[in-house]
Known about the structure:
- The chain has helices spanning about 35-45, 50-65, 95-110, 115-130, 165-170, 175-185, 200, 210-220, 245-250, 260-265, 270-280, 280-295; strands at about 15-20, 20-25, 140, 190-195, 230-235.
- The longest helix is centred in the first third of the chain and has 15 residues, at about 35-45.
- Helix 6 crosses helix 12 and helix 11 (about 270-280) packs across helix 12 (about 280-295).
- The strands form 2 sheets. Strands 1-2-3 form a 3-stranded antiparallel beta sheet, with no helix packed on it.
- The chain contains 12 helices and 5 strands.
- Helices cover about 40% and strands about 5% of the residues.
- The protein has 2 domains: about 20-155 and about 295-315, Orthogonal Bundle (Peroxidase, domain 1); about 165-290, Peroxidase, domain 2 (Orthogonal Bundle).
- The protein is mainly alpha-helical.
Amino acid sequence: MQFTIIVVILFFIVPLALADLSVGFYSSSCPKAEAIVRKVVQRNYLYIDRSIAGGLLRLHFHDCFVRGCDASILIDPTEDNESEKDAEANETVRGFEIIDKAKKKLEKVCPSTVSCADIIALAARDAVSITGGPWYAVPTGRRDGFVSNPSNAEILPGPSSTVSHALQIFTSKGMTLSEMVTLMGAHTIGYAHCGFFRKRLEGRDSTMDPSLNEKLVRLCGNSSSSNNNPTTFLDQNTSFVFDNQFYEEIVNKRGVLFIDQQLALDSSTKGLVSKFATDAESFRRSFVNAIVKMGSIGVLVGDDGEIRTRCWDYNNNNNSDP
């Protein structure tokens, strides 16, 4: 299958330093770091799975909103210890193998230099730009954490969250209402399993466009079996393009997830949703500022944490070559 990808590259000015992170942190210690990550993301997107772009954005969000952007979500569970990967909220998180591929290549070029936490942030940026979204400078210098506990992931907002509940979580991480609505726009390249919205279909939710409801009923069926859990795109219009069409969709009651649709209905958020639905540039600018700020949540810098040689394990457990 051949296809053409048109990527609009826009450069936005962002602070050169944020929460002790800095743009170009690896310019001397590993000058090819960002290019290596970008190439891994591009190859996976072009030749393996175009939907992975949304998965990488979700991975970044799920990492930052638990203990902070410290790559705790990447740790594999063991017989003796669970990890964030065991949390129910992370059962369908994807993109781990891409981070691992990038890390393996980086370890060959710059051993013990580039953190897994930074790889996640860079991969998310590349996922945005490769799907037509804005390219933005990513402040780096994060270090990897020592703790990964599934109970910590309970804070993550779910697909059935209300706007007020989701906002409580965002504000607890220092994010504003506007930034929450903006970051939800990442759903423009995301998809969800039927299990995340099947309850909306059972009662013929009046807040969902009837034609979309019928389409999703045909897709999902009536069974809640794990063997009948297909996926559908959250932006039914331009599913592989990072744009503002997600907002237009929810304005027209075509939000797949309950929380998405509520953004267009709640009095506190519907005004911003309407603005983003008609002003693509405003959304792009807001998204860059919001995701860069999100990427600074709870970061470890300086002598804190470590630089893992394998993203799925702490260094003191690594007894063989990566």
